Amino acid sequence: MTEPTATENKKPPAGLSGRRAIPPNVSNAEEDEVPEVETIGVVPRGFKREDVLEVQDVNLFSREYEINKKEHHTDKYYHFKLIVRRGQIFHLQITFSRAYNPEKDQFWIEYLIGRYPQQNKGTYIPVPLVQELESGKWGAKITHRANNSVALNIMPAANCIVGKFRMYVAVLTPMGILRTRRNPDTDTYILFNPWCTEDAVFLDEEKAREEYVLNDLGVIFYGDPENIRSRSWNYGQFEEGVLDACLYLMDRAQLDLAGRGNPVKISRVGSAMINSKDDEGVVYGSWDNVYDYGVAPSAWTGSVDILLEYYSTKQPVRYGQCWVFAGVFNTFLRCLGIPGRVITNYSSAHDNDANLQMDVFVDEHGKVDSKLTRDSIWNYHCWNEAWMSRPDLPVGFGGWQAVDSTPQENSDGMYRCGPASVQAIKHGHVCFQFDAPFVFAEVNSDVIYSKAMKNGTKVVQHIDKTQIGKLILTKEVGTNEMKDITEHYKFREGTEEERLALETALMYGVKKSETEDASSSTEVDMNIVVEDSTLGSDFTVTITFQNKTPRRYTATAYISGNVVFYTGVSKTQFKDDSFDVTLEPMKVETLEVLIESSEYMSKLVEQAFLHFFVTARVNELQKILARQKTVSLKIPQLLLK
Fold first, then answer.
1. Contact residues for 105 (Cβ-Cβ < 8 A; gap 6+)
2. Of the candidates 34, 50, 205, 608, which lies 20 to 30 Å from 535 by C-alpha distance?
3. Do residues 626 and 531 make contact, with C-beta atoms less than 8 angstroms apart?
């Protein structure tokens, strides 16, 4: 059965369609009046009002102990309204004035959000009655009828807007469309769903979901690598008022409602809104040890008081430093359903001039020149990671994304940072948005000590390649112990792979005119071919180098193999090899890397791909070659005789 939508009827309901030059729809709180009755033509002769199917009650099973919140992992929210996650069935029951007759009666559910709802923007959703629900697509299926009541399963789309929707039941009658009255008790919050495979934030491990979405208590590490200390933090994402406060941040940022189904946009907006710079956001930062008219950063123990104070006063809360920004941002992410965690980077670089290195200048007497030295190194710095697919990036760069709300540098006109793919940072691919060069410099830049001469020249005195990013920690899943994730961001210090990543970053991030020359090198070319293979068998990856010059070169190459979900999120690495190769003049050199089934079979997941990433440095030319390839393994044929 297909229900008529508001735009299909002769007279569209006000606020649902037919507008021109509609103002921006940027507030979850604002709403338009929706007509309770829409007349269609002339009422038939002999029509009796008592024959009309009218809605008397709607039961959303919204209490914390009822089925919807239990199934959607939202039973911890201290909230009396229905909170569900997108891409997953929830249940409701409608009681009519008489028994529903599917042969002659027609009704549908409507969800609206914000002002000026439009179907093509996803802000007006007429949910059709269907025979069978489709995974991840809006639909309603009648599961039971008894007396005057109808039980339904509702499936929200897996990419729908995240926010608070208004809910109506519309009935088609001989006199027109009869709609239920505005009832705030039927408002429905729809959140991101890490349990849904079609959702962009899908996370495939239950323990990880329990930690990064459902855990409302945590620890944030500080100190130094020789004296690691931790402070407890109450994220409190389920506390009364916190969900509405988090949704308000997107209103305050004027993020269009149509963009609120995209975790990339939401995490980037959150990165800007948690700090007060340039947008009067949540936390006012102070690093001068003067905390008059506010609370010292070290006195905060959680996010709840901060968010609720901001929500009620609409003024920045004083004061915060990096761990406060990270703690509040983590609450924002987990509250909306985006898996999030707090990261601590020891010996963290602040690259002020965006050249991917820490420049320390000394005068001719060996003293640091404070006027020339603009870069800085923090003892430690905290930021966040948010888990999501990145369809805007090449395959393999989804998963954990670095997002930082501490105001350090301007990004696209605002103080924010990320989301930047952690996998891209590790490999030096700082060409991918957002703010990957800045995060790369934080964890893996070199410290260049230069002497500033009186004549204006600068002479490099020393390069420290190991000072930055000494240790990167987060909380271990299920315990308060620390988890070392340094190798998520960088290869082991001093290895060829780590140097190669740095050179790749410098190629992409600094010398843009040379980047083109390096990527389209006429001297040496590299290509990779992955052998067609069947699931469960061994196969080879062939790397071909072509030396087009009469000179002899040497190269250092690295191959990484990863299992990735179909969304592009990397699950785990199964191959990690490096090798040296000699390139004879005017010849082709071929290397074959064997991929054994035992290396990848135990790590496969449903709809998985294998992603190979190969980089090589031609030593004499100091140029970087990079290629990547994604393959899907064929399913073995089953022959029956």
1. 53, 171
2. 205
3. no
Enumerate the H helices of 171-241 as residue ranges.
206-209
Determine the pLDDT at residue 516.
33
**Alpha carbons 431 and 440: distance in angstroms, whole number:** 11
Average pLDDT over residues 357-386: 82
Q: What strands lie across the sheet with 570-583, from one edge to the other?
A: 570-583, 553-564, 609-618, 623-631
Pick the range with the lowest mean pLDDT from 284-293, 564-573, 574-583: 564-573
End-to-end CA distance of the chain: 43
Cα four-point dihedral sign 563, 567, 570, 571: negative
- Residue 487's nearest CA partner among 537, 422, 556, 580 is 422
Structure tokens that stand for 70 in this block? 């239990």
- Please name which of 63, 268, 57 lies closest in space to residue 181, comparing C-alpha atoms: 57
Nearest-CA neighbor of 320 among 289, 345, 296? 296
* Residues forming beta bridges with residue 283, ordered by sequence position: 275, 317
Does 531 show up as a binding residue in the annotation?
A: no
pLDDT of residue 43: 53
Q: Which amino acid is residue 287, in one-letter code? A: W
21, 521, 531, 552, 588 from 546: Cα distances, Å: 57, 11, 20, 11, 4
16 pLDDT band, cuts 50/70/90, is very low
CB atoms within 10 A of CB 489: 22
How far apart (Å, rounded) are the C-alpha atoms in residues 242 and 320? 19
Residue 493 assigned as binding residue: yes
Residue 515, pLDDT > 50, answer no
Task: Using alpha carbons, select from 131, 140, 200, 192 the residue that is nearest to residue 170.
Answer: 140
Closest CA to 244 of 118, 125, 59, 81: 81
Cα dist from 400 to 443, 557, 623, whole Å: 15, 26, 29
Is residue 384 marked as binding?
no
Mean pLDDT on 219-237: 92
* Cis, bond preceding 77 (omega within 30 deg of 0): no
List, by residue number, the catalytic residues.
Answer: 322, 381, 404
Q: Tokens 């508001």 correspond to what residue?
A: 6
- The phi and psi torsions of 410 (rounded to 5 degrees) equal -80, 135
pLDDT digits (tens, 9 = 90+) for 54-89: 999 999 998 877 899 999 999 999 999 999 999 999
Q: Which is it for the CA torsion 309, 313, 314, 317, positive or negative?
A: negative
User: Which residue type is seen at 527?
Assistant: N
